[in-house]
Amino acid sequence: MTDLRKTIGSLDNLIAFEAAARHQNFSRAAKELSVAQPAISRRIQQLEASLGTPLFARHGTRIQLTRAGEEFHSVVANAFDSIDQSSKALPRNDDGIVSLRVNVAAASLWLMPALGDFYARYPDIRLHLVCVDELPEFAGGGFDLEIRFGLGSWPGYDSFPLLPEEIYPVASPSLLRAHRIEDAADLAKVPLLQLANFTSPLMDWRTWLGAAAQSDQPVIRPLTTYAMVLEAAIFGHGVALGWHEYVRRAIAKGDLVRLPIEARRSDYREFLVVKSGCKRFSVEQTKLWLLELAGRS
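and the corresponding C-alpha cells:
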C-alpha cells in the first residue's frame, strides 16, 4: 500500500479518475461524487503527475481519454468491480429481510414516493412494510425498524429524528371558493376535519380555536386516520391540520392550499427507532437510507 500511495497519491484521485473516465465529463463526475468540478480536475492532475503521463486530452470543455488513460481506466474499473463484488460476497448473518413498521400517512405520503431510489440502490434488501395507524408498543413487535411519533425516548431502543412537527391549516381550492378564510377567527365558521386519535396537542382543533371552540361551536368532523383526514380535505369536506412533510406535495400539485395562518411547531416529531445493539448489515443500510431521505426532506 505504501508503494501504491507513492504511485497514485490519494485513493480519492483514483475515484475521481474512474468517475470522470466513465462519464467522459468532469462536471458529471463531480455531481456524482458530490464535490465541486475544480476538485475533480485537481485530483486528476495530481494522478497524472504521479503517473508521469496524461490520462485525458483536453479540448476546451471536452475531454477524451488518451491511450494510456484507456488502458489505466480498464484496470481501475475492473479493480473497483472486484472490490464491489467481494464486499457483497462477504459472509454475514443476514437474510436481507428488513421489516419496517410505519403509520399509513408516513408510508404513503413521505416514504412511497422515494422507494424507487431504495430499491435501485439496495436490490438485495427485501423491505417489508407494515403499515398501521394505531401503533402498539415497540417491545415484542419483532420489527427491525419503526417510524414512531413522539419525543424520542424509548428505553432499550435507539431513536433518530426524522421529520419535525410543523403544522398549519390546509383546505381544497373548492372549499376556499365557498368560504373566505383570512385568519384564525374564520376557522370556527367552516367544517373542521379532526384526527380522532392524536398524541400532539397541535393536532387538536381545540388548541387552535381556543375560546372560539366553545362560543362558536364549530362543525368538527372526526376521522380515524390521518390519511383519511387529508383525503377528506382534498375532496373539500373541511379544513385539515396539515403536517408539512405530508401535505407539501398536495400543495405543490394544487390539491390543497396552505391557509394564511402561522404554522405551529412542537418538540414532537417522527423518529426512526431500532433496538439498541442491532448490527445487521441490511438493517443498518436501511436506517442510513431513511436518515438520508429525511435529510433531503
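(Above: one complete record from the training split.) The CA atoms of residues 140 and 215 lie 46 Å apart.
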